[in-house]
Design goal:
Largest sheet: 4 strands, mixed
Mean pLDDT: 93
Radius of gyration: 11 Å
Shape: globular
């Protein structure tokens, strides 16, 4: 896996999207786990999948965990 950069998934917005940040770079607005996977792959973490995202201790979930997509 690529070097350990802080991964932060922010609390859900009014529309249910969650901002995704890897290191100091905003990667996009995720509306589900598959979006998070794609943003992480785009950041160089090519071996991630939805199960990894749910279980990884490298991700800081703010405002609810991986199953929380409503504000």
């Amino acid at each position: 896996m690529a070097d350990a950069q802080p991964i932060v998934i922010y609390r859900p917005a009014v529309d249910g999207g969650r901002r995704v940040r890897v290191g100091d770079q905003f990667r996009g607005m995720a509306y589900g786990l598959l979006d998070v996977v794609e943003f992480l792959r785009g950041a160089g973490l090519g071996d991630v999948d939805e199960d990894w995202v749910r279980q990884s201790g490298l991700i800081e979930w703010r405002g609810g965990g991986p199953e929380q997509w409503l504000p």
